[in-house]
Amino acid sequence: MVMTAGLSLSTLSFAQALATPTSLSEAVHTTVAEVLASGQDDQYVSLKGQVSRQLSSEKYMLTDDTGVIQIEIDEKLSRILPLTPPTNVEVFGEVDKKGNTVELDVDYYSLY
Fold first, then answer.
1. Over 90: is that where the pLDDT of 10 sits?
2. SS3 of 99, please?
3. For 19-44, what is the mean pLDDT?
4. CA–CA distance, 36 with 18 (Å, rounded to integer)
5. Where are the beta strands (DSSP E) in 1-112?
6. Strand partners of residue 29
7. What is the pTM of this model?
8. Which parts pass through the membrane (predicted)?
9. Which of 5, 63, 64, 87 is deepest in the core (most CB within 10 A)?
10. How confident is the model at residue 25 (pLDDT cuts 50, 70, 90)?
């Protein structure tokens, strides 16, 4: 059984709603290594892997066969569908580049 979590449009600001793709099919399915090597800031991607560690209430480490990346999941989402490492997930979100660091701001995820 696949379980999903996402913010409803009513909980997003109008600006966030405009910036979010209209369908999950617009996300580029990729790997952690590809995001770290060539992901563009604000690029919408999907990654499949395992939440291997929780760093804080909103920060986690996602691991796939190619590497490890930090992801940020709003507490509103993780309260709806809790994450307890290790958990297999597919995440959809925006690449966030800050200086030399790359992380993924997750808008939606599903467990598998």
1. no
2. coil
3. 83
4. 26
5. 3-6, 28-29, 44-54, 59-64, 67-73, 87-98, 101-111
6. 46
7. 0.78
8. none
9. 5
10. low
Two tokens, residue 20:
């979010």
Q: What type of residue is 26?
A: E
- For CA atoms 82, 96, 46, 85, the dihedral sign is negative
**Would you state the pLDDT for residue 5?**
62
Q: How big is the chain, counted in residues?
A: 112
- Report residue 24 as tokens: 């999950």
Quote the tokens at residue 90.
Answer: 């597919």
Alpha-carbon Rg for the chain in angstroms: 13
Angle at 112 between CA 91 and CA 10, to 5 degrees: 50
* AA identity, residue 68: V
Domain assignment of residue 11, given as a range:
3-111
Alpha carbon separation from 21 to 35, 67, 101, 102, 109 (Å, rounded): 18, 26, 24, 20, 15
Domain at 15, CATH number: 2.40.50.200
DSSP state of 41: T
